[in-house]
Amino acid sequence: MKHPGSLLLAWQVKDKHCLVIGGGDVALSRVHHLIRAQAKITVVSGPNVHPEILELEEKGELYKLLKRDYEPEDLQMYESKEQLSLESFKDIDESHYAQIDDQVKNQVFACVCCCIDDPVLSGKVYYQSKYLRLPVNIADKPPMCDFYFGSMFNQDALQIMISTNGKSPRLSKMIKDDIAKQFAGIKLNDAVDTLGDIRANLRARKLQDNSLETIEKRMEWIKKLTDFFTLRQWSR
């Protein structure tokens, strides 16, 4: 039996560089997704920039806005010439951790989003990104996407994503809107915050031991507590 779905993940790009190529409606949509994820967003817009992207720059929501056409060097614009040099990754030890963290957070793009109406250039961006091993999304080209942007239902920390694997974004939106109607008037984020606080407090307590049995009992207690009340009760 085939399973055509993607692997849906909560991808952590907070404080990491992300590149958006393009300055239109699709680019704006990508920017909004990345702002919510607290990424450091660089936009290479070309000469025509969506007014809302300009507003976001003025508000300080963007890390950098370049109002020019894309150049291949943009994919490595933050990389330092002083790279970690080892004969093998097996030689990595604790003395290298800080430098590796710096490279991941401050020098390498966590993802590349290409949103331009130029199929030839889009193809180049895709293969240039793949050569550099950068995750890339080419708008409206599912075969050239390492990841998709689905329709999102958000209430602060709560996120529900609907994806059709790039086949029908419009259908994803319809399903998302239907979910929003079902939960209208329910403060789901209150439930998330309350249960999150309970779980954090429980984890912070000093347990008699940290055995697998103790951890399993703690998880079972949280499960029973969560199931004891309805969703509406937790959301009050």
UniProtKB/TrEMBL annotation:
GO terms for molecular function: ferrochelatase activity; precorrin-2 dehydrogenase activity. GO terms for biological process: siroheme biosynthetic process. InterPro entries: Met8-like, Met8_C, NAD(P)-bd_dom_sf, Sirohaem_synthase_central. Keywords: NAD, Oxidoreductase, Porphyrin biosynthesis. Coiled coil: none annotated. Signal peptide: none annotated. Pathway: Porphyrin-containing compound metabolism; siroheme biosynthesis; sirohydrochlorin from precorrin-2: step 1/1. This is precorrin-2 dehydrogenase.
